[in-house]
Amino acid sequence: MPQITVDYSAVLSEGFDRPAFAKALHEEVVRTAAAKPEACKTQFRPGVDTTVGPDTEGHAIVHVTLGLLAGRTDETKTTLTENVLELLREYVKPLAGLALHASAEVRDLDPSYRKFDILES
Questions:
Q1: What would the pLDDT profile of 4-46 be if each residue is shown by its tens digit?
Q2: 106: β partners
Q3: What is the pLDDT of residues 59-73, one digit of tens each?
Q4: Which residue ranges form the domains of the chain, and what is each CATH number?
Q5: Alpha-carbon span 93 to 78, nearest angstrom
Q6: CB distance 87 to 4 below 8 Å
Q7: Which residues on adjacent β-strands are paired with residue 7?
Q8: What is the DSSP letter of 56?
Q9: If you compute the radius of gyration of the chain from its CA atoms, what whole number of angstroms results?
Q10: Sign, CA torsion 59/24/20/66
Q11: Among 41, 101, 102, 107, which residue's beta carbon has the most beta carbons within 10 A?
Q12: φ, ψ of residue 39 in degrees (nearest 5)
């Protein structure tokens, strides 16, 4: 925890500094939601096809989902999503003529959430 997934249009690949975004995002989650730095995990998933309304061209999407253990206030969640959107403005540079649609949400992980880590040496 937190479990973070970033879905983005593949056309943004060159203009999206994913390593720097992840580092800044993890720092923000620690600062805003009191997460532990070593617990932050982000997975990026590029999407090949993007459609917005009737248009299949000229659009790109980035959506960040942050799964946190329950207990954060709605205010904390709102602050975190707003700050994530600001980070996207900084780290995603869309191509000219491309409309960027960015969004973020924080959700509570289900009480059934469990995890394990394996470190092989």
A1: 999 999 999 999 999 999 999 999 999 999 999 999 999 999 9
A2: 66
A3: 999 999 999 999 999
A4: 3-108 (3.30.429.10)
A5: 24
A6: no
A7: 45, 63
A8: S
A9: 15
A10: negative
A11: 102
A12: -90, -15
